[in-house]
Write a structure and sequence with these properties.
binds iron/sulfur cluster; Rossmann fold; two-stranded antiparallel sheet; binds FE3-S4 cluster; globular; binds ligand FSX; Cytochrome-c3 Hydrogenase, Chain A, domain 2; 45% helix; 3 domains; alpha/beta
């Protein structure tokens, strides 16, 4: 898609973009074409029109790198790891080029009092202008004593650092809504950044989140001077506007009623839909199915690798619902038809299913119909698979 965007650009745009790109590419020691592709891919991820590549390239070239203070609390550091593991064109180079990472406990060379001093200095020098990124949940039970860094409680640190920040970004599900540390019975009272600060913040959920969603958010801030449009949970709409199920590569199998019923069964080996293994794609908002992870080629995301989505981005789903519990079919539009497999097996005619779908009419009706069909499929598929 990025290449297609490049082809659609006018020559002027290409020249402008190329000029800015040369500077950045030299600075990063990467190939200019790779950088241009990155700009095009970021514009595509953000849903920006053709031509925005030039603005992005120029912003990355010229904009003053915003100071970033990155705090770690209750988490596994997977968010930072995923940023550093991304490739093409070496995301960590880009991220460290577009931001000035002034405080990050895992990545900074300084330790102890020096690290503390670096945080204080950055806060003072960039008062009102720095971006605060928080990774990890914040324990609030027992006055917040369960997480301390340098003798300071997480709850105090986040409030202190947020007070003079230009923007606050909660990265990962832990910071966005509590994530894994908040799993019942949540002994430490692990809470989200928004809850602790008592105000909405931009959230990039996922455990870990897709690094491009973070980078695209930062690039948006750099290019337009503002954070991207968000939904009611603070999630950038460009990344979390759709449920995974809508663009899943296995969706045709779902619609046709072809499911894996056990790990390793014939349906699983054939790449059938993982809904009956507990896939939460139908109730999880994220772009995993469209942008994948780690630039390691097609299908590089949980479902693509054969594992049901556990809904790691979604509060109330990830780390909350049992893995094998089937998902709520959220926002489903009924498919135009219920083809194939049921009819072939002679249990229900296609015409009858289509007529019922037409009578049901609404999306909810469609979902109910679908659920009915799923039941039929189960009855059909089980003995067939056992017999094979
Ligand atoms: Fe880990 Fe981050 Fe999960 Fe949490 O990612 S990958 S536990 S979302 O805060 O480090
Ligand atoms: Fe894909 Fe899961 Fe939806 Fe099946 S249920 S189509 S595997 S997202
Ligand atoms: Fe998480 Fe599901 Fe995406 S488990 S990474 S939201 S496919």
């Amino acid at each position: 898609m990025a290449n297609q965007r490049m082809e659609n650009m006018s020559e002027t745009y290409i020249e402008e973009t190329a000029e800015a790109a040369s500077t950045v590419a030299n600075r990063l020691g990467i190939n200019r074409r790779e950088f241009l592709q990155f700009c095009a891919a970021t514009a595509t991820t953000l849903g920006l029109p053709t031509g925005a590549e030039a603005a992005i390239a120029k912003a990355v070239e010229k904009a003053k790198r915003p100071s970033v203070i990155w705090l770690h609390f209750q988490e596994c550091t997977g968010c930072s790891e995923s940023l550093l593991r991304a490739e093409h064109p070496t995301l960590e180079k880009l991220i460290l080029d577009v931001i000035s990472l002034d405080y990050h406990e895992t990545l900074m060379a300084a330790a102890g009092h020096q690290a503390e001093a670096a945080r204080k200095a950055a806060m003072k020098a960039h008062k009102g202008k720095y971006v605060l990124v928080v990774e990890g949940a914040i324990p609030v039970k027992d006055n917040g004593i369960y997480c301390k860094v340098g003798g300071h409680k997480a709850i105090d640190m986040v409030k202190e650092c947020a007070a003079d920040a230009a923007a606050v970004i909660a990265i990962g599900s832990c910071a966005s809504w509590g994530g894994m540390p908040s799993t019942e019975p949540n002994p430490t009272g692990a809470s989200s950044v928004g809850d602790v600060l008592g105000k909405p913040v931009v959230t990039i959920p996922g455990c870990p989140p897709n690094p491009y969603n973070f980078l695209a958010t930062v690039v948006h801030f750099l290019t337009f001077g503002s954070l991207p449009a968000v939904d009611q949970l603070g999630r950038p709409k460009f990344a979390y506007g759709r449920i995974i199920h809508e663009h899943c590569e296995r969706r045709a199998h779902f619609d046709a009623g072809r499911f894996a019923l056990e790990f390793g069964d014939e349906g699983h080996r054939k790449g059938y839909c993982l809904y009956k293994l507990g896939c939460k794609g139908p109730e999880t908002y994220a772009n995993c199915s469209t942008i994948g992870f780690g630039d390691a080629g097609e299908s590089n995301w949980p479902v693509g690798c054969g594992h049901p989505c556990i809904g790691c981005t979604e509060k109330g789903v990830g780390f909350t619902k049992p893995i094998h519990q089937t998902a709520v079919l959220r926002g489903m539009s009924p498919p135009a038809s219920y083809p194939g497999i049921v009819e072939q097996q002679g249990k229900a005619s296609f015409a009858a299913a289509a007529a019922l779908a037409a009578i049901a009419g609404t999306a909810a009706g469609g979902a109910a119909m679908l659920a009915k069909n799923l039941g039929k499929q189960d009855a059909e598929q089980q003995p067939r698979q056992k017999g094979e």
